Amino acid sequence: MAAFDELVEELERSYTETLERQSDPAVYNDHREAAAVGRRLKELEGPYRLAQQWRQAKADLAAARGDAELAEMVADYEAQVERLEEELKLSLVERDPADDKDVIVEIRQGVGGDEAGLWAGDVARMLQRYAERRGFKWEELEVNANEGGGMKEGTFAIKGDGAYSVYKYEGGTHRVQRVPDTESQGRIHTSTATVAVMPEAEDVELELEDKDLKVDVFRSSGPGGQSVNTTDSAVRITHLPTGIAVAMQDERSQLQNRDKAMRVLRARLFEAEREKQQAEQAAVRKAQVGSGGRAEKIRTYNFPQDRVTDHRVGVSARLEDVLAGDLDAFTEALTADEQRRALGQ
Fold this sequence. Notes:
Strand content: 15-25%
Order of helices and strands: HHHHEHEEHEEEEEHEEEHH
Helix content: 40-55%
Strand order of the largest sheet: 2-3-1-5-4-9-10-11
């Protein structure tokens, strides 16, 4: 208990110091520093409130133990103190530094032919609706259609406070079980789409030197290889040290395609470095949820049963609601699971 008391005292000290720093004119006049202090204060506000509730519950418990008339309340106060301790521990779990970042999402058709392409398009629309529900901005960077009318692959950007903390749980294989429109016998087919989620790196976090980049330009082409542009506006950028390459051709301007390609390239390189660091950390502690495993089947969308099941936490929801962008039940359960794992529970 003494260790927990020290944890609460340290939290209260950090909160008070951060509050004082926010009022410091030197901090106030430095926009970058002020923003950093503001973010830190926002992080501490929730745990600080819980700490005050915990102190009050402890005082109530002590009073109940010393008063015969309140003796029947002791068990309730003990349960309240225990619950608040658990909530406070979870609130203090170290957050992923990337949680506040914007996101780059890559969606590809998996197994299942044309039906997989249609499903990839459905997954993209689901994630877009989720972004809209959360108040995030959704931006299409590049979409390549397949000949069956579906989406072969698509790259999107999502901007908003804490976007990565929400979307990191969508990375993996999304499996669908349904009767395709082209199926005359009414048989259920299983198809997949894969989703890769990466925090969008800022220029200051990832320096790329021109000598490490190979830039190729070529003419844009549509499905089937037909030319859709008469100028060399499409761009492919290859990062020579890693071999990671990104091509963009949706924009008519070579400059716009280059800018988009650089954004995606930065995100891929940033994520590759994060995965390397997490792999090293996993050698000394358990890996946290969402740290990799893109090939892993994370969710099944069962149309005949009108049910979606997330296999990581065993949570199910109505198919219609999920496809409309209501993924909150999954996000909340996965966040809680990640926090418990971080505490080693």
